[in-house]
Amino acid sequence: MLNEAAYQYPPMSDSKDGTPQSATEDVITDLEFLATAQELGTLLDRYEFDSLSDLNPFQLAELYSLFAESKDESETAREAVRDTLVEEVHQGRDIPTEYGTVRRVSTQRRVLKDDEEVLSRLRSYGVDNRMSQALINRK
Questions:
Q1: Phi first, then psi: what are they for 133, rounded to 5°?
Q2: Angle, CA 33 vertex, CA 76 and CA 10 arms, to 5°
Q3: What is the Cα–Cα distance from 69 to 12, expressed in whole angstroms?
Q4: Helical segments of 7-114, H only
Q5: At what angle do helices 33-47 and 57-88 cross, to 10 degrees?
Q6: pLDDT tens digits, the chain, 139 residues: what are they?
Q7: Does residue 27 contact residue 80 with C-beta atoms inside 8 Å?
Q8: Which of 14, 53, 89, 122 is an S-S bond match for 104, by CB 3.0 to 4.6 Å?
């Protein structure tokens, strides 16, 4: 178990009225994923099964539906926590926790240029039309 006190992180940002605000304070209280997770746990306990093949189609459908709902709701909460965390953590910094390590990284997507724009630019540099077309066809 990691000791959170061993890692010195700056406090989370204060709210507009000057009171400290935790990263998950609003997420945990506003989202329904906790109720759904609790309902899922209750259902799993009630079914008392060793394998999914022990369950009938209705029970499987109930579990599937609750797992899907739980996934959607927890993803919303995860994104809200991530957005707050991004504001607090510098690029490339690791935050090790008991449940895993989080690292802030960013990526950029490259967008391919339009074929005509590429051909035009190649022509402007004196590249033969057949060579340009062969290069474009290779992609």
A1: -65, -40
A2: 60
A3: 30
A4: 25-30, 33-47, 57-88
A5: 150
A6: 444 444 444 444 444 454 445 544 555 555 678 888 899 999 999 998 999 999 999 999 999 999 999 898 888 888 888 888 888 887 778 888 898 988 887 777 888 778 888 888 888 888 887 877 777 777 5
A7: yes
A8: 89
- Give, rounded to a whole angstrom, the gap between the first and last alpha carbons of the chain: 50
Residue type, 106: S
Domain ranges of the chain: 4-103, 109-139
**What span, in angstroms and rounded, lies between the C-alpha atoms of 69 and 108?**
31
Helix (H, G, I), strand (E, B) or coil at 96: strand
Q: What is the pTM of this model?
A: 0.51
